[in-house]
Amino acid sequence: MFAICKKELRQFLGNFTGYLVIIVFLLLCSLFLFVFPETNIFDAGYATLDQFFELAPWILLLLIPAITMRSFSEEFKAGTYEILVTRPLSRWQIILGKYFSSLLIVIIALLPTIVYVITIDRLSTGGIDTGGITGSYIGLLFLAAAFTAIGLCCSAFTGNAVVSFLVSAFACFLLYIAFNAISKIPSFQGGLDYIIEMIGIDFHYRSISRGAVDSRDIIYFLSVIVLFLFITNKKLLTR
């Protein structure tokens, strides 16, 4: 597993495209937070990173599929997957190696955003809500882990990296916001709306971001991750 993880990391970070993906993520976050009107933190009038944690999932929704889209699709297209499975590695070791390498790249992309926390803390006079920000980062990591599992799963269904990107971005979008939107339909009001909303990732992400790390939210994210990795394993079994 660790050999696969290191290979994937070297492959992604060994060319300019990998760094470009991370740079674009940080650039977009910075533009929305400090430059664009109505979204920059200076217009808010108080020290908060709420705008960042509302914006980050939407950018990750595109960033993570861009990272995972080649995981299996390139292996299928180049014919190297058949060589990979002949090595003394189980399917789960291959899947987990690719999964953790992709997740580690996402974490590397998120690490520089700590500069935003330091900047806001220095600009504010009364300090920032450290507990709330810590909870928001925990929620963001769980959300990134779920998106990574979804992206890896979609990559196992096609030999075309572009198709993998589009399908995984759409799947992440549906699981993130679609259930919240469906719950707003008037015919679901009165109890069923809450149940539908709970199926979506956005509900649990917002719950953790409030600073209260609930075991139900953690179980939800772990269940999503395990489910999509299990589907990935089943799909690879059919090849």
Polypeptide structure, described:
It is a single chain. The chain has 13 helices and no strands. Helices cover 77% and strands 0% of the residues. By secondary structure, it is mainly alpha-helical. The two termini are 20 Å apart. The radius of gyration is 19 Å and the shape is globular.
Overall mean pLDDT: 84
Number of helical segments with 4 or more residues = 13
What number of structural domains do the residues give?
1
**What's the N-to-C terminus distance?**
20 Å
> Cα-atom Rg, whole angstroms?
19 Å
What's the story with the biggest beta sheet? none
Uncertain segments are none
The SSE string, one letter per element, is HHHHHHHHHHHHH
| Structural class estimated from helices and strands | mainly alpha
General shape: globular
Quaternary state of the chains: single chain
The portion of residues forming beta strands comes to under 5%
Helix content: over 70%
How many E-type strands? Answer: 0
Write the layout of secondary structure elements.
Layout lengths: L1 H12 L2 H19 L6 H4 L5 H19 L4 H6 L2 H5 L5 H20 L3 H10 L6 H26 L5 H23 L8 H8 L1 H9 L5 H23 L2
Task: Summarize the entry for a quick read.
The chain is mainly alpha-helical and 239 residues long. Helix content is 77%, strand content 0%.
Highlighted features:
13 helices; mainly alpha; 239 residues; 0% strand; globular
